[in-house]
Structures are given as structure tokens and as C-alpha cells.
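Appendix C: a fully annotated inverse folding record. The material below is reproduced so that readers can follow the format used throughout the book. The structure is listed first as C-alpha cells, followed by the designed sequence.
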């Protein structure tokens, strides 16, 4: 079948953003160039309530995942992604104009298809400028629901996502 992979390198977890931002054709932009550290913060939402009988109840309200890319350097060769992040930042775009999809791929076996998930998200630049060395536009990605599990085949560095038959896995 397939050979078991040992300890995963960080490069085995891939994050792509649809740089078309709702356009007619999905165009996946791989996040990672100039990025030394990226973790999805799950931000679990739980609350403990103690009643008058000294019993504790825990309400689990799910997750509010997000991540920050602090080291994105403005790079016109990034095509659609650069054009969109520049547009959002400099024209102070909000709402639906910042909405797109995220694709997460876990390469945990020696050949595909690989497990993958897509989800709607909001991409928001946090600032622009920075120190000597390049114009930075750090941004945050906030997951916003409609998570779908599936698989990805990667050919010539281009991922193609296929949703599982039970597509919506929220």
C-alpha cells in the first residue's frame, strides 16, 4: 500500500489561500516563502460554570481557528495574491471583499492522494511597511466555517482538491 512516514517535517503541512477571492477559477497560493513559523491557533471556546451545588459544568462552544503570517513581503511576482492583499490593505477593504478559502493539506504518506480540508476564511492585512529590507504586509487568516474534508493530488506543485462523498464535515 504505502510506506509509513516517520516524524513529519513542518513542510508536510501545507496551507494554501485561494488567491481568486471568490473568482470563477480557484487559484491556490502556497503560503510559506519567507515564513519561518506558522501555527494554526485553534482558539478553543470553552467556559466553566459552577452552580450552587458546587458542581462544575463545562460548555464547549467549539473553535475559532486563525493564524498570522507576519513575514509576508510585498512581491508582485506572487500575482493574484499580491494584487489582492495590496488592494485589501491600501483600499481598506472589508467584509466579503476579504473572504476566500483556505486549503490545508497533510502530506503524511509517501504518495497521494493526501488528506485535505477546505474552509471559508477572511484574510486581513494587519499593517504595511516595516523595516529596511522590504515592504511587509503581515496578514491574518481567520477560518469562518463550512469546513469540507477531502483529498488532494499535487501535480507540478498544483493541488487539486476533491471533497469526500460526505462533503460537509463541520
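Designed amino acids, in order:
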Amino acid at each position: 500500500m504505502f510506506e509509513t512516514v516517520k516524524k513529519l517535517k513542518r513542510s508536510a503541512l501545507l496551507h494554501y489561500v485561494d488567491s481568486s477571492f471568490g473568482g470563477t477559477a480557484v487559484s491556490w497560493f502556497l503560503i510559506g516563502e519567507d515564513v519561518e513559523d506558522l501555527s494554526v491557533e485553534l482558539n478553543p471556546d470553552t467556559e466553566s460554570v459552577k452552580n450552587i451545588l458546587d458542581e462544575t459544568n463545562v460548555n464547549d462552544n467549539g473553535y475559532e481557528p486563525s493564524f498570522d503570517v507576519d513575514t509576508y513581503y510585498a512581491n508582485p511576482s506572487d500575482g493574484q495574491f499580491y494584487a489582492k492583499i495590496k488592494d485589501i490593505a491600501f483600499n481598506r477593504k472589508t467584509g466579503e471583499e476579504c473572504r476566500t478559502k483556505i486549503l490545508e493539506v497533510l502530506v503524511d504518506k509517501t504518495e497521494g492522494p493526501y488528506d485535505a480540508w477546505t474552509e471559508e476564511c477572511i484574510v486581513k492585512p494587519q499593517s504595511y511597511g516595516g523595516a529596511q529590507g522590504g515592504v511587509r504586509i503581515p496578514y491574518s487568516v481567520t477560518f469562518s466555517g463550512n469546513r469540507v474534508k477531502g483529498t488532494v493530488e499535487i501535480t507540478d506543485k498544483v493541488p487539486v482538491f476533491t471533497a469526500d462523498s460526505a462533503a460537509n464535515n463541520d
